[in-house]
Records
---
Amino acid sequence: MYYAYKYRLNPTATHRERLSWTVDTCRQVYNHFLHRLNQHEGTPAMTTLRSELPALKQWWTDLQDVYSRTLQVVVERLYDNLKGLSRLKEEGYRVGSLNWKAPREFRSFTYSQRGFKLDNKSGRTVLHLSKIGDIPINFHREIPDGARLKQVTVKQEPTGNWFATFGVETDADAPPKPDELERCVVSTWGF
């Protein structure tokens, strides 16, 4: 089974600046590859565009400060969006084309497979992100034993708060649904 566990991050001012810079750089890379995609006749394979990343890093030197797998995921995200449009078109919807992402429309980046880990430093849990550092995390519930961390998506909500959502894979079955609900919120609105 695949689960998502979401935790609030408590970044310092320096971390906030670095996280914001990383999100914006990923947004610019997304827009760059959208432009490259539109230059090709037909749709090139994802690996074709992804293979351009090393050469891109040579002249866009800021990209060397972003974890490489994160940049690859940005290209994958572009192709996922393209597949979504294709599916809608097949279902009969009128769709346009993918648009450039403005800063308010692109708020997250993902570390997939490597480049991140949960660590305990001086009794406090931190999220270590390669090329960013150790960010304190509000680790309010444990991830099940034997679960494998597959990815982490770091996102800034419109409120300005930062969150980390871990993609976790486990062989365990889903917990059974309780017969009676305990400790639930009761509405005073009457519904």
---
Amino acid sequence: MAEKAGADVDEARAWDERLGWAFGLIADDPAARAAALVRLAEAQRNVAEALGRSNEMWWLTRPLGADEQYREPAFLQARRRYQQAQRHSLPDGVWGRPVGGDLATWPGLPYALLFLEWEARYPREWTEYAKAWGTKQSLIRDVARTHQDEAVKAKLTDLVEIVVHRAYRCKDREYVRVARAVDSADLRGRLDRAADSDSPWARCQAGYVLWLLDHPDLPNTRHVWRAWVAGRLRH
């Protein structure tokens, strides 16, 4: 057991060494965010260069045939370097998460949450530097299924509140899953305040989330959303 805990610590440290700089992307200080964006741009250039080299080696070794090609040391090395570069960048760095399992003990969970928080708090920078709607959607779905400790619940509650207050962005409706997973008096109080605010987006979106929290058997589909909006407009 102690050996496993030690391995988890080592893996978490490896994540921090690769992507610890990325927390600057959600810093309140614009200078810290700018520095992190420079690091991200450099990491993404490294990924692009490594991918180019991997593709080049694939082409050069193609005459060997599929079996021999995938045993060719030069090609394998180029592929490994590309995969390693991906682990130091975003969104690539959060793609290799456990499939179908609980992310609660995954050392990459803080970085998955970071990626979602970055999109929620600084959507323009996220869109310019790391737009990946599919990654956003899959991460939201994964964290909604994850067993959450209090710190993760608090982070997810904050994300739901941020999202309902802004103009709708692609895949935001997925946050209903999160709201249902972390449903609490605190979350409902925040949504109530948003639903009573001056913002038409907040009133509409928070009202919809609250309605689905009160109707857990209803699916969160476009049809249900449109029906709710239509009913709201009639009133």
---
Amino acid sequence: MKFHFIAGLPRSGSTLLAALLRQNPRFHARMSSPLSRIVGATLAEMAGEDAPLVSADKRRCVLRGLFDSYYAEEGRTREVIFDTNRGWGTRLPLLTELFGEVKMICMVRDVASVMDSFEILVRRNALERSALFLDEQERATVYSRAEALLLPHRTIGYALASLKEAFYGEYARSLLVVDYDHLVRAPAQTLQVIYRFLGEPAFDHRLDSLQYDEPGFDAGIATPGLHRVKPSVQAAARRTVLPPDLHDRLARMNFWRQPGYSEASVLVGPGGGTTGDRHDMAPLAIGSAAQDVDRDTSDVEAADLA
């Protein structure tokens, strides 16, 4: 089996991307898996008080074996495994140690739009008490909900920190940063670029017959629809539900759209922008994260995409 990885921000198209990739009979992909946490826990155990008994070679073999064991069933019929977890960004050095060259697709989206998407889900499920929040104080207002999700160890805050660590780290060349807008506005072209980055042979995807949902998992955290993908890829414009001051503050957190020193690759459109032009999405290409890119944000929402 060959392994590739999907990371990035929540509500930025990672589940949509997985739903598309799994159409390829060579590929296995789905929502976020627990494998990153299993790897971390196993490494911590081997590095504990018994560490002198576990050589570096043994640790490497055990950790690499976790991937093969976890995906043993899927590997019987699929050649390429895409494992999704927002924590992989913090484990790039470990993944490089285990696999050598690593390829990771990092899905991103205007942070204000990410928060807006979560807020829409919360309001849509008004009879539920989403497990995204720990108590009624966190659930109280749109501001308290935003602050809770942005905490360093929580849904958005952790994903942002993990992505930033990978984006500016020494293994940034392993990353392809893909903006949500590109995926929903020009899915066929976006997939072509992703395949080229991964070094995988092209595949003709169907964009109007997607099938993916995780109702059991979503019900378990009292957030129905969190991982539901609509049957077709589509972008739908609507006004944000966030107050203007909160929206503006969050929009300034889109660090990957700023000039920087990262060696990561980014999916860019005409003129080098990382966000999609509203009228012409061609051509898309792989560019450098260090270039001065378009800072425009978008309120595009393709509902029910993770």
